[in-house]
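Action item from last week, closing it out:
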Amino acid sequence: MPTRKPPRAPLKQSELIDHLVDATGLNRKEVKRFLDELSSLAHREVSLTGEFLLPGMGKLVRTQRKARQGRNPSTGEEIEIPARRTVRFRVGKSLKSAASGDNTTGSDI
């Protein structure tokens, strides 16, 4: 049975920027500007089309949540939770298989 790697904390934004600076040769300001633009583009595309594709990872998809009954945890009183739009991330096939340890798609994540 293979040994498991110890869990590690998720990357913080500064660590992500440092990694991308090292990997691309761009400076910190350029990498930060790229990430800001990517975020703006994702916001705009989800607003306009309802989807934003991140190749090799998955896509952001706008969904509609129905109104539902909930309960106030303090008082136990039933409350009506209104319908609303939300964004979900649908994991792509290559990322899903990489996360599960099945690397049959040829991706090396």
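Closing note: The beta strands are 51-54, 58-65, 68-71, 78-81, 84-91.
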